[in-house]
Amino acid sequence: MDEQAQLMNLRTVYTRAEIWPDGSASTVFVPDLPIPDGAGGTNRVDALLYPTQNGGYETRLFLATQVPAKHGLNWQTANVCGRTWKAVSWRGVPASLPWLEMLAEHVRAFR
User: Fold this and answer.
1) Which candidate, 13, 42, 44, 56, has a CA 20 to 30 Å from the CA of 33?
2) DSSP assignment of 37-79, as one string?
3) Residue 73 pLDDT > 80
4) Residue range(s) defining the domain that contains residue 31
5) Does pLDDT of 70 surpass 70?
6) Residue 33 and residue 46 in contact, taking contact as beta carbons nearer than 8 Å
7) How many domains does the chain have?
8) Which residues lie below 8 Å from residue 38, measured CB to CB, with a gap of 6+?
């Protein structure tokens, strides 16, 4: 599936998602992504899905701010698309997944 088809599929759930370039790579900005807080609540935070290899990870999910989580997570800071983002060390989300499924797998780190 090409990027535009992936974006249209993602927009069935996240209507304001958009593609942001990062050098030669494309990332996906998802405003107000609901992230579980580990205690039954939800945080809404801007997110950036990196659907290709980045920093030794097959795919990544960056958040505008660090959020509370049920488990102690290893947080890192990165500059992507000219902004500072937070990300947890979460592996095993393949680039072959559709973006909507990929995003759901990354959010699973916070449950």
Assistant:
1) 56
2) -SSS-EEEEEEEEE-S-BTTBSSEEEESS----SS---EEEEE
3) no
4) 3-110
5) no
6) yes
7) 1
8) 68, 69, 70, 71, 110, 111
